[in-house]
Amino acid sequence: MTLRTGHIGLNVTDLDRSLGFYRDVLGFALLAEGKEDDRRYAYLGDDDGPVLTLWQQARGSYDSGRAGLHHLAFRADSIDQVTRYESALRAAGVDFAHEGVVAHSEGAASGGIFFHDPDGTRLEVFVPDGAEGAPAPHASVPTCGFF
């Protein structure tokens, strides 16, 4: 038996702000929410179940310079869907790591957009193919390295 990703849990500093970002900008459905002042959380996902759990337990923004989570990658159905997410994210004022849709590496068919959530967590929305011809930010390292 091979283990697969069940869901991802993220500590966030402001559940309302993060819930708005993941639900309203990225389109995850709210499946359940805990509203006790000192035990706030939200399960986000789709008909298949939870994909992401937000826990209001952090006191500071994400530190990308420490061991632990590197980034989260969400797979889209098409390059058109990736560009729709890009538009929605730009309208929300999101910070991008690279300009527009980029390839995972020189000449790769896979690629997407790379950005940060409200707490600074690195995120990616990608497609396995459809990004042919998109530029690669770096010739020698994968784009999802966020270099």
Explain what this protein looks like in three dimensions.
By secondary structure, the chain is an alpha/beta fold. 16% of the residues lie in helices and 29% in strands. The chain has two helices and eight strands. The strands form two sheets. A four-stranded mixed β-sheet has the order 1-4-3-2, covered by helices on one side. The chain has a four-stranded mixed β-sheet with strand order 5-8-7-6, covered by helices on one side. It is globular and about 50 Å long. The chain starts with 7 loop residues before the first strand and ends in a 20-residue tail after the last strand. The mean pLDDT is 94.
| Spatial strand order of the main sheet | 1-4-3-2
Distance between the termini: 34 Å
Q: How many strands in all?
A: 8
Average pLDDT number? 94
Number of helices: 2
The computed structural class is alpha/beta
**What is the chain-wise order of helices and strands?**
EHEEEEHEEE
Proportion in β-strands: 25-35%
Using only C-alpha atoms, the radius of gyration works out to 16 Å
Uncertain stretches: none
What is the helix content? 10-25%
Shape: globular
Largest sheet: 4 strands, mixed
